[in-house]
# Entry
Amino acid sequence: MTIKRHLDDATLMSLSAGTLGEALSAVAAAHIGICSQCRGRLHEMDTIGGVMLANAEPNPLTDPARFLEQVAASRPEVGIAPVSGGLSRTKQLQASDLPAPLSWIVGKNIADIPWKWIGPGVASYAVPLSDNATSDLRLLKVAPNKKLPEHGHSGAELTLIISGAYRDKFGVFGPGDIADMDQDVEHQPIVEPGEDCICVVAFDAPAKFKGPFARILQPLIRM
Amino acid sequence: MNDLIRRIAADGDPDAFKELFEQFAPRVKAVLIRQGADPATAEELAQETMLAVWRKASYYVEGRGNFATWVFTIARNLRIDRLRRQKGWAEIDEDLSTHIAEDMPPDEQLMQTEIQQLVGEALKKLPPDQTAVIQLSYMEGLSQSEIANKLSLPLGTVKSRMRLAYQRLRSAFEELK
# Structure
């Protein structure tokens, strides 16, 4: 698989900071699992996060003594050598033939997905997310040569091609490629001849800490 | 720091753990509070983060990735996990970090401490508008559109400031190559 279309730096930075919503994170992480180029950039962004954490102003814990005693009474896990050879561990954990983490979230092989036809040549499956999710994750299966209506993007949206390919004004998007478009971009994808194009699309909004205490404190802390 | 983590991995040394704990737990707690967690939740997650460091010390291989980066990814994943209340999601990136580390060429592995210093210096030299955007993202946990609202900027401007900040910080990594 030759991946030609990658994640935007701004998207990667939000993924690294942990501020992408559930659906966008899942799609971005699935691309990262198969794309060493984006993986390398994410690692640099995580390093930036690590440096910022190391330089953050500390806030002492109220009573760490008890916790430290409990930890001292336990033993660390005995060393198991990290799995070598790229993504083998991820592959072992895979629950389906979709790339991780979509594999675990969807929990089904592509052949077993209960597609719903939403128009001629277009089938969709809405992937269930966590209760707190404010995002939308769906698989789409579009027939060869099918032209989708021209559309813009109202919010953050990521599309990962699982199989097949489509073409729009930006070129051809094939397996492993990710379409990370700015919201003001309009395009009209046409599926390439030969096979269905299966892709996973995420629309998103981020999760927030809930509870009255957090809400009261949040404005004060942010000042 | 690598000496401390080695002592935990090899001997389960609680004194070594205490030193790392004192350095990182209060910072993880502080950042989580800035991201909207109440103090009790922040403290609990900071302890969980450090407990993962204790338990998984032997998986952390010295020189393969920066220690602070490792703590950062653990804390981030625990926070995301808590926000989604769904186990399984959070483990992805820790796995990925291991793979990333394996991908790295050996000479790059040796320079992690220098990377930390260079990135720290580069962060201080960022233009204020870029600093604001990455602070709000990493430290306050705001999404791109929340940053845009807070700073009264178009979303596109927030994104381009993120990209510019990364390009500048990136030169710190490039210096070592």
Observations:
- Residues 14-34 of chain B form the longest helix (21 residues).
- Confidence is low (pLDDT under 50) at residues 86-102 of chain B.
- Chain B touches chain A through 99 residues (CB under 8 Å).
